[in-house]
Recover the amino acids of this structure.
């Protein structure tokens, strides 16, 4: 379990990194925290000819508050996000999800940008980004662009990111005052990838009707599922966790898997959705 | 409480081993620096079963840093095959070459070994070795193996049924006819692997001038390993040294001489260079050694009160492709000791073991792990079917103290055990009496609690007479030496292979006790075959029994000579009334103990440097050795009680409380014993809940990483509450009975019984492990 | 092959290695610090955990070449002057290790964690410890030792 040979680059600036990616094309692979790429390379499942190590780039590790969002640099470590008082206050769903990633040492090293670019369908941050409608800022030789998280993830470990582009930052919309959230996942052990995960954020109006529901389901399909129709239909109604959960179960199409049968994943989606919604309502 | 018999045995001494291990100065195999060592990497079969048409090593040999690529044909010239052919009825003899020559038999079978200047370069070259395989149909499980027309895993065996034994005593058929009911149950335990955190590995250093091999390797059994290495390399036992310093866990995986290790040793001799190999985790999962994967069926003939009249057992084990042990050995022990603390005269068993295209099986901490689950699950089934209290069914059938020693129907004799005492202590601790009311109240709130009991009678120590009776070649003896050096320093050694059990500390206490010195002044040396005497190593729970008894007897011999010299030095005719306490000789006068002023250092100096001052006829020096063969079998016992909560919506389990009441005889060091109890229970629970070495239906291994092979972490396990109920054994000079595997047996059974108690309102029974949430959901969904 | 310097336990080490050489291997083979153990090489077992600028990291998921300009701390630095640190002492007194192979990773993980959270609950300790596999102890005495060390520092 030793990685195959590669050439190593350590750019000091984003521009330098983008130039290296442009020069080397598909044979280069950006390296952020390396908590997913590292194991794949040690097993030789990934054998990139070049690694562009992003860790020495200054200015990609930040947490900024804007009027409507928290803008987080791509090199920000999970642990920083989880323990940030800004994120906890302005985007508590994100903080809670980040705290549940892997283990302590993994969180200390893994990065936001790396997690999104890797696009594991069971990972926490892609799910939260898709659920909240985060915006992903991407830089490349053709300049910067901002991509809605729902459009960013294509399928299993595949995104719309071009090989010569890098994630620069992610803007997560701030929660409204009184907005309740829950992040509920089910895995065999603490820190394992979720067999199903549900992220919920609910804002009720004064009549206790749903003013805004954000709901995302991870670990079930090849990318995070945001059941848009279900969400739209629920708005303006009194929240009924059991009914919404039953609808969520119907909104997902898990693939059969020898380890986790599809029927079981559907059951988990229903139970977790109900529990997550109930948790939100209880906290109101 | 009776007055403690011992001064040092039983003291809670923190371990001597700890400081070096805590500060990063342990010496595990891969920590040993060997200048000029080359690195080995194995090329492994991607096929579960295939003919080897050819292996092209040219491209690999041209890679940078590559010294050699060896295949099965090379190794066949330099080493002899392993023949496993003990004279056991119903067991077919089998043989294996060091590396496969004609065909591969499982996914991960090593077909070639690349030797290069670094592991990195060796792995690069291994990717370039072109093996040409002709795939053969494979058998992926026991049923496929025995299906008509199944492909043969080993063509030298007439069928894949490599072993079958049956046994009957009494008249089970008659008992079944007379019975109020015949209760039938099934139990299915999954394939697992030992998963020591340190994988296998070795470093072979061939000294061409002296024609001597030093093999650094983490081994539980240094001397038996030396015998194997020497024989298979056609060397004498004086040409091989096994050196095993610190070992990062064994659990049964570090007993056999594996093919990779023999290959590395042979490569070192061939290349006249040191060669080292550190197994990586993927290899360890795929190809080290697996364990378990057995199915049991019991049929219990019972009265309407739940009294056991007769019992039948069938065991089927999927043994994998290669036999590093006699194929019947693990399952046979289950059948031999199944009835444990319960009384029954009429008993029959059938044990079937099949070869399949999977990694070969071996003993894993509690080779007989399934035993207590099967017996105690049967007890619960009897209670369930007859609507009786499961505790009452146990009490009704359990052997009474006055009935000991008791011969099990297989002839195994249990004596000096206390199953009733431990059972009652465990049920009291967990408040069995009050539990049903709590359980009912919880159910009204939609919470599902379950309580499980499991009594264990653990076969800890095999004496030579047991092996003889079972037809297995081998010895159960242990060997020790003790030397008091001229300075008075005490060195001792025993033929065990420590892998974390704290032997250096516990055995220092034993030697200190027997000799009359302080444990701090005793150093116990183990693991090097040039130093240690020829003992049978660490397996089962024989360290605390055979190991401590041998050292204690050796130390008593030493004490006798030391006191004889002291008597002479003091001018007495006999050592009567003298004793040594903490290295100083005392004399008893009219019930009072008086310092004599003579210390061990003076006696030692006299023994070595002034032999003419010794008693007439006494040889100089203080050098002692001892061998000891324990009784045919030693048993200890325990009772486990476990409370769980089941989340029926997700299938998730939470262990709420866990108690174990255990009697392992004299405790050498309570820290060590409790640590072994924790570790064994943890290993059992980890297996029962999480671990599963999976193959697909084509015999492809689909468990290649620790993201797939799940072992328990700190958040999966409860706090273990220990009730120490130790009573000395009369069959052992120190009084130990052995322990460290029973915790696995008991926890597997206790958790399964607790889960079935929680499942009872749903009318379903979990009869296979792991008790994963999706499995439990599948049971609940079926209702 | 690249030549670079590493700062390990406050000492400079000149290293000549391929970029792909894992930090765990460079520490063990080039720096001759074998206290960092390798248990899985895919980031799961936690045995190789070291500190990078005070933060815990799996040495098997880092390339040594990445670590220029960073401070690496390994188990060898924890027992200053041969005297065990508070957590090491607590592990000794509570019998928190058996084979000892996973121990360095656990010590390093909690060297970092107890600085961040000096008074953890048992639940928090178990949660953080879940990133380190131990096959011998069942974790109970490790948890007890960590809590004991935390109290001792208080």
């Amino acid at each position: 379990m030793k990685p195959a040979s590669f050439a190593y680059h350590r750019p000091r600036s984003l521009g330098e990194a983008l130039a290296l990616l442009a020069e080397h094309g598909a044979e280069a692979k950006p390296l952020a925290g390396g908590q997913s790429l590292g194991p794949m390379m040690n097993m030789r499942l990934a054998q990139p000819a070049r690694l562009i190590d992003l860790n020495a780039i200054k200015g990609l590790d930040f947490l900024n508050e804007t009027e409507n969002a928290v803008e987080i640099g791509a090199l920000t470590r999970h642990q920083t996000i989880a323990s940030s008082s800004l994120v906890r206050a302005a985007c508590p769903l994100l903080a809670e999800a980040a705290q549940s990633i892997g283990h302590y040492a993994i969180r200390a090293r893994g990065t936001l940008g790396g997690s999104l670019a890797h696009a594991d369908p069971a990972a926490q941050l892609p799910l939260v980004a898709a659920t909240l409608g985060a915006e992903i800022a991407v830089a490349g030789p053709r300049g910067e662009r901002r991509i809605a998280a729902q459009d960013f993830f294509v399928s299993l470990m595949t995104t719309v990111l071009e090989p010569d582009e890098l994630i620069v930052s992610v803007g997560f919309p701030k929660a409204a005052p009184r907005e309740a959230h829950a992040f509920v996942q089910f895995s065999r052990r603490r820190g394992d990838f979720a067999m199903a995960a549900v992220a919920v954020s609910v804002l009720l109006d004064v009549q206790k009707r749903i003013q805004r529901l954000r709901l995302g389901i991870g670990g079930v399909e090849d990318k995070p599922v945001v059941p848009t129709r279900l969400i739209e239909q629920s708005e303006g109604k009194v929240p009924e966790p059991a009914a919404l959960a039953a609808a969520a179960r119907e909104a997902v199409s898990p693939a059969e898997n020898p380890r986790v049968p599809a029927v079981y994943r559907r059951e988990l989606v229903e139970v977790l959705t109900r529990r997550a919604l109930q948790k939100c309502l209880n906290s109101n | 409480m009776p007055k403690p018999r011992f001064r040092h045995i039983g003291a809670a001494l923190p371990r001597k081993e700890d400081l070096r291990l805590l500060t990063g100065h342990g010496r595990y195999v891969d920590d040993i620096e060997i200048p000029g060592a080359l690195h080995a990497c194995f090329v492994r079969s991607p096929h579960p079963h295939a003919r080897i048409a050819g292996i092209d090593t040219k491209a690999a040999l041209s890679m940078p840093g590559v010294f050699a690529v060896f295949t099965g044909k090379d190794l066949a010239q330099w080493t002899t095959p392993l023949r496993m052919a003990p004279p056991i009825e119903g067991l077919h003899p089998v043989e294996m070459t060091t590396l496969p020559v004609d065909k591969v038999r499982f996914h991960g079978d090593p077909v070639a070994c690349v030797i290069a200047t670094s592991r990195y370069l060796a792995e690069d070259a291994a990717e370039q070795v072109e093996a040409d395989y002709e795939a053969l149909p494979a058998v992926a499980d026991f049923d496929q193996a025995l299906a008509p027309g199944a492909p043969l895993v080993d063509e030298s065996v007439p069928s894949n049924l490599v072993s079958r034994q049956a046994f009957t005593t009494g008249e089970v058929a008659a008992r079944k006819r007379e019975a109020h009911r015949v209760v039938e149950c099934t139990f299915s335990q999954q394939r697992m692997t030992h998963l020591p955190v340190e994988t296998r590995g070795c470093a072979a250093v061939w000294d061409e001038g002296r024609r001597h091999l030093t093999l650094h390797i983490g081994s539980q059994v240094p001397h038996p390993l030396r015998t194997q290495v020497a024989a298979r390399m056609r060397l004498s036992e004086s040409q091989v040294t096994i050196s095993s310093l610190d070992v990062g866990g064994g659990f049964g995986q570090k007993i056999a001489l594996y093919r990779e290790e023999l290959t590395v040793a042979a490569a070192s001799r061939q290349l006249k260079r040191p060669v080292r190999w550190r197994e990586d985790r993927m290899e360890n999962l795929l190809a080290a050694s697996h364990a378990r994967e057995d199915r049991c069926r019991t049929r219990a003939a019972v009265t309407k009160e739940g009294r056991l009249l007769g019992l039948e057992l069938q065991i089927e084990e999927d043994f994998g492709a290669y036999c590093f042990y006699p194929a019947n050995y693990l399952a046979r022990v289950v059948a031999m000791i199944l009835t444990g603390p319960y009384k029954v005269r009429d008993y029959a068993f059938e044990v079937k073991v099949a070869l399949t295209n999977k990694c070969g099986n071996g003993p894993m901490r509690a080779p007989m792990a399934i035993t207590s689950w099967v017996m105690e699950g049967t007890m619960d089934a009897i209670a369930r079917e007859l609507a009786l209290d499961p505790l009452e069914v146990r009490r009704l059938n359990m052997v009474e103290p006055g009935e000991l020693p008791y011969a099990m129907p297989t002839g195994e004799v249990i004596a000096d055990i206390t199953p009733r005492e431990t059972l009652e202590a465990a049920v009291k601790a967990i408040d069995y009496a009050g539990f049903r009311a709590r359980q009912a109240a919880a159910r009204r709130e939609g919470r599902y609690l379950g309580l499980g009991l499991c009594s264990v009678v653990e076969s800890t120590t095999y004496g030579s007479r047991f092996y003889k009776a079972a037809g297995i070649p081998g010895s159960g003896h242990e060997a020790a030496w003790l030397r008091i050096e001229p300075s008075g320093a005490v060195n001792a050694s025993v033929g065990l292979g420590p892998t974390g059990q704290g032997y250096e500390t516990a055995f220092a206490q034993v030697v200190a006790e027997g000799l009359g010195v302080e444990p701090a002044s005793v150093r116990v040396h183990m693991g090097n075959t040039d130093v240690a005497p020829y003992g049978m190593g660490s397996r089962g729970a024989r360290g605390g029994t055979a190991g401590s008894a041998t050292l204690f007897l050796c130390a008593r011999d030493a004490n006798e000579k030391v006191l004889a010299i002291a008597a002479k030095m003091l001018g007495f005719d006999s050592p009567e009334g003298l004793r040594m306490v903490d290295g100083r000789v005392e004399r008893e006068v009219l019930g009072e103990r008086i310092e004599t002023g003579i210390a061990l250092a003076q006696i030692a100096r006299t023994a070595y440097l002034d032999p003419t001052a010794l008693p007439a006829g006494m040889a100089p020096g203080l050098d002692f050795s001892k061998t000891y063969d324990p009784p045919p079998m030693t048993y200890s016992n325990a009772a486990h009680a476990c409370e769980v909560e089941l989340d029926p919506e997700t299938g998730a389990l939470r262990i709420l409380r866990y108690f174990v009441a255990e009697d392992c005889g004299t405790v050498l060091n309570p820290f060590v014993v409790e640590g072994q109890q924790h570790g064994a229970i943890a290993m059992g629970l980890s297996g029962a809940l999480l671990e599963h070495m999976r193959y697909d239906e084509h015999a492809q291994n689909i468990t290649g990483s620790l993201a797939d092979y799940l072992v328990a972490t700190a958040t999966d396990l409860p706090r273990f509450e220990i009730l120490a109920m130790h009573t000395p054994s009369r069959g052992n000079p120190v009084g130990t009975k052995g322990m460290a595997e029973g915790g696995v047996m008991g926890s597997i059974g206790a958790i399964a019984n607790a889960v079935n108690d929680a499942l009872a309102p749903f009318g379903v029974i979990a009869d296979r492990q792991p008790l994963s949430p999706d499995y439990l959901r599948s049971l609940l969904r079926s209702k | 092959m690249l030549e670079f310097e590493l700062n390990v336990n406050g000492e400079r080490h000149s290293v000549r290695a391929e970029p792909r050489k894992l930090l765990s291997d460079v520490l063990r083979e080039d720096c001759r610090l074998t206290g960092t153990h390798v248990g899985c090489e895919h980031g799961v077992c936690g045995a190789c955990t070291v500190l990078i600028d005070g933060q815990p990291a799996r040495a098997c998921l880092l390339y040594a070449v990445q670590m220029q300009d960073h401070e690496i701390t390994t188990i060898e630095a924890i027992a200053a002057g041969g005297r065990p640190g508070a957590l090491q002492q607590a592990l000794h007194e509570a019998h928190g290790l058996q084979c000892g192979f996973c121990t360095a990773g656990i010590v390093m993980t909690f060297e970092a964690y107890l600085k961040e959270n000096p008074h953890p609950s048992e639940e928090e300790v178990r949660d953080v410890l879940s990133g380190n596999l131990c096959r011998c102890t069942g974790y109970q005495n490790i948890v007890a030792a960590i809590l004991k060390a935390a109290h001792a520092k208080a």
Chain C touches chain B through 58 residues (CB under 8 Å). Residues 2-77 of chain C form a domain with the Ubiquitin-like (UB roll) fold (CATH 3.10.20.30). The mean pLDDT of chain C is 96. The CA atoms of residues 28 and 34 of chain C lie 5 Å apart.
